[in-house]
């Protein structure tokens, strides 16, 4: 029709189910409040995590032969690792060191899957060992009811003040890797205008930590960190993963102590959802290997507790590999397991 303006009408097809574990079907943010599951892996992760936290705080204060254990003195262009100081003219050595670290990470991923994400990554360690416990303590019923209970304003304020104190400590510890800790103590007792650069660095790092652990949280792992997306290249079917034994668990269904004949045909999974509500990234491990899985083993501890209660063997969800779960066979020796050590040696 002359003079009429054409209108483009776009019809959006709604997603069939949740697209991301942190996204509701209507597009709103899904705030995760994972339930803690006690077990052998949680205890082991706590030991490893607290050892790494203590090391992170202690390393800037340790010395080897009168030199700092680790110091990145950018103004002086001196970079000290394990008591050995390197200069910009030796950047090739630093590049080789970084390359070796990356290749070692590739080797560990090929062997043990995302062991770094679940057991060594600062994002996971501080989220699960510091910030979430603080949140559980202050939120109380608001946490256990997934936000349905009323939040006490004083408790909310206490939570964020505690978050800020932890973030401030971590920011100062981070700066201690670049500045002599004795000098940093002097900075803390003087006006920020006397050391504006150091003050701005601490302020920026504190703000980033608060933004990370108050808002982004698990989305750093699922949306930002590239490591999860690299796993499709770094892993193979023999790599260690957290996996659900489909052959043993399916078909799912509720069980009783004296099952009737139809019920006797059910698998060991009682479809209780314990593995889902405890997952820090909100996924269902029974759906198979997923990019969001960080290998923390909380679903293993949760499932083992359920298996103990219903009188079934542990290991329905366990550390295994895709081939081992499918065929029962595990092959550790394969081309990439030989190639990575050779490259590291070279």
Summarize the structure.
The protein is mainly alpha-helical. The protein contains 15 helices and 7 strands.
Quick one: how many beta strands? 7
Shape: globular
Q: Record the strand order, biggest sheet.
A: 3-4-5
Q: The biggest beta sheet, please?
A: 3 strands, antiparallel
Q: Layout of helices and strands, plus pairs?
A:
Layout: H1 40-58, E1 63-64, E2 67-68, E3 70-73, E4 78-81, E5 84-86, H2 91-112, H3 115-119, H4 122-139, H5 141-144, H6 153-175, H7 181-188, H8 196-216, H9 219-224, H10 227-234, E6 241-244, H11 246-249, H12 274-277, H13 298-310, E7 317-320, H14 322-327, H15 335-345
Helix pairs in contact: 2-15, 4-6, 6-8
What does this structure look like?
The longest helix has 23 residues. Helix 4 runs antiparallel to helix 6. This protein has 15 helices and seven strands. The chain starts with about 40 loop residues before the first helix and ends with a helix. It is mainly alpha-helical. The model has no long low-confidence stretch (mean pLDDT about 90). Strands 3-4-5 form a three-stranded antiparallel beta sheet, with helices on one face.
